[in-house]
Design brief:
binds magnesium ion; globular; binds 3'-deoxythymidine-5'-monophosphate; 13% strand; alpha/beta; nucleoside diphosphate kinase activity
Length: 212
């Protein structure tokens, strides 16, 4: 009741299809917040550095084959292994800008045909993002942008399915930003939305878990 609100950092996630501009925008947002004197770190999932992350990476570059459910659980475990650190960072006032999170986890696996609820279950209890910035771009348009790489999933037909599942996962933490706008316009929009979110968290918006 008379709980003093705790100032904390915010968890800001960028999501979108491959070639939607996510990674560039993460980098830009990160430097901007840093230049504003805020405590901020840039994270990404999969985190390919850890032992689990290396298994994921070798799967993505087709050096290994894994059952669809097994790889789904590895992606999730890769987030779980960073959960405690994530909570400490947020509680100590550091803002996190994260390139992909549970929404990618669910959308990509569901696009392979796995049951949506089954895909969501292992994400339950991870920290819920304060803000999800979804860079919305038609899959055809994304495919035109310098082409896809050679990794698994980087194919137009598959990306179309992923896009459908992403939009089915939208919740109140989401802001859909038109990824077809000029890079500078997207950057400006993201800055504004991020600053707003950071202020709310600093003023004590409570930390909650997925899927709330
Ligand atoms: P990058 O291109 O961003 O490195 O992603 N993916 C990602 C999943 O299938 N499940 C997940 O939980 C996450 C985080 C999306 C590599 C690919 O991995 C997919 C693209
Ligand atoms: Mg990629």
């Amino acid at each position: 009741k008379d709980k003093t609100p705790m100032a904390r950092g915010s968890l800001i996630v960028l999501e979108g299809l491959d070639r939607s501009g996510k990674s560039s925008q993460c980098a830009k947002l990160f430097s901007y917040l840093q230049s504003e004197g805020l405590s901020v770190e840039a994270w990404r999932f999969p985190d390919r550095i850890t032992a689990i992350g290396q298994m994921i990476s070798s799967y993505l570059v087709n050096e290994s084959q894994l059952d669809d459910k097994a790889i789904h659980l590895l992606f999730s475990a890769n987030r779980w292994e960073k959960r405690a650190l994530m909570e400490r960072k947020l509680k100590s006032g550091t803002n996190l800008i994260v390139d992909r999170y549970s929404y990618s986890g669910v959308a990509f696996s569901a696009a392979k045909g796995l049951d949506l609820q089954w895909c969501k279950a292992p994400e339950e209890g991870l920290i819920a993002p304060d803000l999800v910035l979804y860079l919305d771009i038609p899959p055809e348009k994304a495919a035109e942008r310098g082409g896809y790489g050679i990794e698994r999933y980087e194919k137009l037909e598959f990306q179309k399915k992923v896009a459908e599942y992403y939009l089915a996962l939208r919740d109140s933490s989401w802001e859909v930003v038109d990824g077809c706008l000029k890079m500078e316009a997207v950057e400006e929009k993201l800055r504004e939305l991020a600053m707003n979110c950071i202020l709310k968290c600093w003023n004590g918006k409570p930390l909650v878990n997925l899927w709330s």
